[in-house]
Structures are given as C-alpha cells and as structure tokens.
C-alpha cells in the first residue's frame, strides 16, 4: 500500500535530506511525498523542486497552513503527517500497514513512536543532529525493542484516512504557526466518532525535536489557551480524560466517553475558571 506523506519544511536542509533518505531507503512501498516549502533559500527549495511534489510560500506561513496547502495534492487513501527532522525506521510502512489491516473500518488515528535524545516517547540518544546521528545504533534499538503499542496517541507522525482528513478540514488554521494543532486535530476526530488512538511500537522514528522552533526567531502561538477557549478545557485535560494516554499506557482498544470522577470534576472546574478568565480579558 502506498501512503501520502505531508511534510512542512522551513530552511532545515540537512535534516530534510536525512528525512528523505530514510523514506527512500527504509520503505517497502513507493509513497507519495508532498512538501510545503516555506522560504527554502537554504537550498531546500531547489532540492525539493527537482525531486518531489510540493507547494510553496515565500515566507513561513505556519505548520497548519503549510500542511493544508500540501494536502491539495493528495492521491492516496491514507495520509501521513510528518516532520522534516525525523528519520523513519526500517520497514516502517509494513509495520503501519499491519496495524491498518487489523481494522474493519477507517475510524482510527495511528501514530509512530518517537525516539529522541530527550523529550521523546522513548528517550534513547542516537544523536542531536544529522552530523551526530548514529544510524546503526538506532537500527539496532528498533530491532531489539519490545515496547507495547500505546494508548492515546496525539502526535506526529500520524496517519488517518483521507475521508477523515476531508471531513474535519485538515488542521485548524487558528492554531498557526502550530502549537496545539495536534490535540485540536484529535479533538475534531473525536467529535467525528473516532475512538481508536494508538501509537504503534514497531513504527519508530528518530525525532531530532522541533528544529524549526529551536531557532529562536519563530513566533510561537499559545496553543493551550486557544484550545481552552475553543473546547472549554485544555489539551492536558483532553489527553488525560479523553485519550487516556501520556505515552505510558499500553493500548487496550477503542476508548469510551470519559466518566465523571471527583478528580475529573475538580480539573474541569479549574479549566472553566481559566476559560472565563480569558473570556473576560478579551
């Protein structure tokens, strides 16, 4: 099965080349790669123009707008959103396909497992950039690791069916340049009836970690506040009580609507107080 992979990029040329290398060398199938190039003056525009389908903006328009632009070129049924600073493991697409083939419908949101030198689902140091990346160490870890699939995934790389993508309208542009966009997408899917949010253990990526935002000259939106004002509770509440996942809970199947508990009521009241406080400030 061929997937469509959507990737925004903003002057991360060395990471971008490593990402493309992983897709070409570690995939079983021939996937459709679509990039949205923001600026691209570091050489990434010319590199992509010669090799891949892409959309383009002269300036950085943000993650949400970038992905929605690129999504106009989708040709396949299953859509993956990925970062340009990721390295996909060997046979990642076979592992993903095996999970998809276990399903009887397309009402699911699946994620890969992020490996990183810090702040990953699994922390395992294989380098903090293209020059220091230890591919052999990463390959060996992927081969030997026996971690379980996890409950409540809400992170990239993720895959959903194109029908779901179209129904929810892709990413919400009010979350540009991107903070809070992943839980917002999951919340929109939840409202559409999706209850399977699974992180696939064998589908691993090494993630160097928000390279674009680490540059220090990028405006970061307050995604937590935006999410709270949109839904009445913050992303942490959604992850805890709806998705029931913090990167530690083994996958147990479809989720149910959260049941009110004392702790949930207290957390919800705190969220409501914050909600009305922000409303008063508007």
Task: Give the gist of this structure.
With 282 residues, the chain is α/β, with parallel strands linked by helices.
What does this protein structure show overall?
By secondary structure, the protein is of the alpha/beta class. The protein has a single domain (4-220), classed as Alpha-Beta Complex (Spore Coat Polysaccharide Biosynthesis Protein SpsA, Chain A), CATH 3.90.550. It has 11 helices and 10 strands. The chain has helices at residues 13-26, 44-49, 63-70, 92-101, 135-144, 162-168, 181-191, 211-214, 223-231, 235-243, 262-281; strands at residues 4-9, 32-38, 53-57, 78-81, 86-88, 108-116, 122-123, 150-151, 158-161, 196-207. Strands 1, 2, 3, 4, 5, 6, 7, 8, 9 and 10 form a 10-stranded mixed sheet that branches. Helix 1 (13-26) links the parallel strand 1 and strand 2. The longest helix is centred in the C-terminal third of the chain and has 20 residues, at 262-281. The radius of gyration is 19 Å and the shape is globular. The N and C termini lie far apart (48 Å).
Count of individual beta strands: 10
- Which consecutive residue ranges, at least 5 long each, have pLDDT under 50? none
Could you give the distance between the termini? 48 Å
CATH homologous superfamily - what is it? Spore Coat Polysaccharide Biosynthesis Protein SpsA, Chain A
- Average pLDDT, rounded to a whole number, is 95
CATH fold description: Spore Coat Polysaccharide Biosynthesis Protein SpsA, Chain A
């Amino acid at each position: 099965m061929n997937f469509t992979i959507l990737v925004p990029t903003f002057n991360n040329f060395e990471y971008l080349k490593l990402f493309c290398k992983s897709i070409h060398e570690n995939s079983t199938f021939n996937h459709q790669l679509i990039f949205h190039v923001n600026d691209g003056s570091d050489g990434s525009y010319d590199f992509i123009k010669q090799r891949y389908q892409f959309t383009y903006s002269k300036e950085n328009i943000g993650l949400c707008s970038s992905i929605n632009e690129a999504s106009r070129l989708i040709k396949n049924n299953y859509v993956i959103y990925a970062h340009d600073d990721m390295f996909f493991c060997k046979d990642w697409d076979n592992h993903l396909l095996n999970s998809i083939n276990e399903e009887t419908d397309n009402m699911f949101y699946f994620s890969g497992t992020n490996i990183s030198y810090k702040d990953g689902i699994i922390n395992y140091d294989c380098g903090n950039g293209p020059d220091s990346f230890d591919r052999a160490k990463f390959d060996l870890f992927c081969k030997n690791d026996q971690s379980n699939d996890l409950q409540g995934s809400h992170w990239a790389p993720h895959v959903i069916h194109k029908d779901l993508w179209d129904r929810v309208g892709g990413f919400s542009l009010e979350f540009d340049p991107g903070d809070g966009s992943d839980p917002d997408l999951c919340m929109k899917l939840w409202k559409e009836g999706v209850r399977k949010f699974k992180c696939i253990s064998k589908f691993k990526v090494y993630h160097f970690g928000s390279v674009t935002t680490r540059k220090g000259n990028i405006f970061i939106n307050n995604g937590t506040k935006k999410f709270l004002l949109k839904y009445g509770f913050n992303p942490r509440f959604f992850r805890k009580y709806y998705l029931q996942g913090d990167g530690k809970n083994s996958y147990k199947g479809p989720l149910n609507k959260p049941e009110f508990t004392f702790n949930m009521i207290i957390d919800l009241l705190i969220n409501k107080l914050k909600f009305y406080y922000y409303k008063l400030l508007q």
